[in-house]
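User: Before I run my own analysis I want an independent prediction to cross-check against. Here's the chain; please return only the structure tokens and, at the end, one sentence I can use as a sanity check.
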Amino acid sequence: MATVTEGGIQGASFGGTGSNIGAGDVSSQGSDTGFSAQGKEQVKRFTGATRDRVYHQVDSRKDELVKGLQGFISTLENASQNADGMSQQVLHGAVGYIRKFSDRIENGTTEELLQDARQFVREKPAPFFAGCVALGFLAARVLKE
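Assistant: Structure tokens:
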């Protein structure tokens, strides 16, 4: 059985198989640093692989999102043709903003879009949190029904 000493583990054996794991003093700083470095390297590889998978998923779904936004733009354009006065101006402004957003999604890489989102949240946190609250209310409405 292993005994824990100040700074390390001594004489660890594994389940009676006769193989000693860590036989001897493992308290040296060099071993601890090497073990920590290996752990850190494994975490870096894992997070890198995970990030690559997420980016791939986002890239594969960008086209679907852009098509949906373009359909929404055409619906708003039709509505603006039937509107008059102030509502027509508001709809034209919304169409322009959504078209710009759609183009940015279509032409930007996932990393660029993520950087833009981070920058927006840092520069304008109030609209971001207001949007989160609005999405929360909308989700509650949808899930309630």
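Sanity check: The two ends are 59 Å apart (CA to CA).
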